[in-house]
Amino acid sequence: MSDTEKVADRPSAAPPGANSVDRFFKISERGSTFAREIRGGFATFFTMAYILVLNPIILGSAKDKFGDQLDPVQLTTATALVAAVMTIIMGVGGNLPLALAAGLGLNAVVAFQIAPLMAWDDAMGLVVLEGLLICVLVVTGLREAVMHAIPQPLKQAISVGIGLFIAFIGFVDAGFVTRIPDAANTTVPVQIGTGALTGWPMLVFCLGVLLTIGLLARKVKGAILISIVTMTVLAMIINSIADVKTWGLTTPEWPGTVFDTPDFGLIGDFSLFGAFGETTVITVVLLIFTLILSDFFDTMGTVVGVSAEAGLLDDQGKVPNLGRVLLIDGAAAVAGGASSSSSATSYIESAAGVGEGSRTGFSNLVTGGLFAAALFLTPLLTIVPLQAAAPALVAVGFLMMTQVKHIDWDKYEVAIPAFLTIAVMPFTYSITNGIGAGFLAYVVIKVVLGKAKEIHWLLWGTSVLFLVYFAIDPIEQILGVK
Hints:
The chain is an all-alpha fold. It has helices at about 5-10, 20-25, 35-50, 50-60, 70-95, 105-115, 120-140, 140-150, 150-175, 200-215, 225-240, 280-310, 320-340, 350-355, 360-375, 380, 385-400, 410-430, 430-450, 455-470, 470-480, and strands at about 100, 175-180, 190, 345. The protein has a two-stranded antiparallel sheet. A two-stranded antiparallel sheet has the order 2-3. It is a multi-pass membrane protein. This is MFS transporter.
C-alpha cells in the first residue's frame, strides 16, 4: 500500500447519514465502505482457510503419552468453531480487521513437545493455563514488560526456528524425510524416503511444493489454499486410477456427501492441572512459558503489522484498543485449549483482507461467518491427504524464515544465541530446547563480555529455569528422587 493510500485511510468524521452499524464499527470514519469490508472478509478467510486442514493434520498425526490420537473430524469442527467465535469477538470487541485461528507453531509445540509427555486432556489444560496467564499479564501490564525483556534478535530467531521446525514437520509428515532404522548402523539419522523419491503420494507432495512456491513467487493471493485444493484433486484422481497402498492419515476419496452435522466431541475435554501429575513441575512451567513466548511474539508482530498496513496506528505508532485486542487474543488461547484445537492466535493473513479494503472489525463478521459455515463441511475438509497439505507447512516455514534478515550476524553476542535458537529447534525436534539454548547462550556471552548489567532480571530468571530444565536428570539423581 502506498503512503498516499494510507493517508487517505486515516480516520475522518463519519457522514451525517451513517447508520448505527457504520458508526459502531467506524466504517466511514476510517475511510472504508461496507463493500470493501465484505470483500476484505472473504479475502482473509480464503487466505487462512488452510488451517482447517493443517491443524487437524498436525494435531491428529501426533500421539500422546499413552499412544492415543485425536479424531480428525472432531479437530476440524473444533478448529472452525474457535476461529468463527473468536474472530467475531475480535471484530466486535477490538474493532480491528484481525482474524484468529489455531496458531501454526503453537500447535506444533502441543503436538510434538507437550503431548508425548502426558495425556491429551492434560496437554490442552496447559494451553488453557497459558491463555489465562496471558490475560493476567495483559491486565497487569506485564505482557509488554516481558516483551521488552527479551532482545529483539532472540525474538526474531525464535520465529525463524519455529519456521524451520514447521517446514521439517511438513517434510516428515509427507514421507519425504524418514528416519533411518538403527539397524542400518549409519551415522545419518534421516534420509529422503527410502533413499529415493518413490510412489504416487510422494509425487503429489513434490508437485505441491513446486506449485506452492511458484504461486508465492508470483504473489498470488490465497496461494497456500489454492495449492492444497489443487493437489487434493490430483490425489483423488491418482487414487481412483492407481493402486495406492496408503496415503497416511486420510485417503483422498470423495466422501459421498459434502455436508454433515458438526462433531463437538472434543469441546471441554481438558484437564486444567492434570499435567502436574504427569511430569515435573519445572517441565510444566517451561512448557507453559514456551507457549506464552510463541503466542507473544506472533501476536504482537501481527497486531502491529496489520494495523500499520491498514493505516490505523496513531501518531505515536500505537494500535487502537490494544488492551482489548491483547485480552481477546489471550481468551482465544483459552478457547483453543478448552476445545482441544490448540492455542488460537491472531493471523498475519488478515493483511490480505486489509489489502482488499478492510479497515474495521465488520470484516471479521464476514470471516467468522465463513468459518461457521465450514463447521458443516467436515466431510469435504477431511479428505485432504498429508501429501497435499504438507507443502503448505514448507511454505509457512519459508515465510517465517524471512525474519532472519533482521538479525545482525556480525554482532556475535546476539548472533550466536540466535543461531543456537534457530538450529536447536529443528535438530532436536523441540521448540523449548531452542529457546532455552538461545537464552542460556545470550546470558553466558553477556557475562563473559562483562555486560551482565544489560541482562533484564526476567531473562536471568528464565535462564535459571532453563538451566534446571536441561540438567533435570543429574539434579534428580543428586537429590535422590530418581
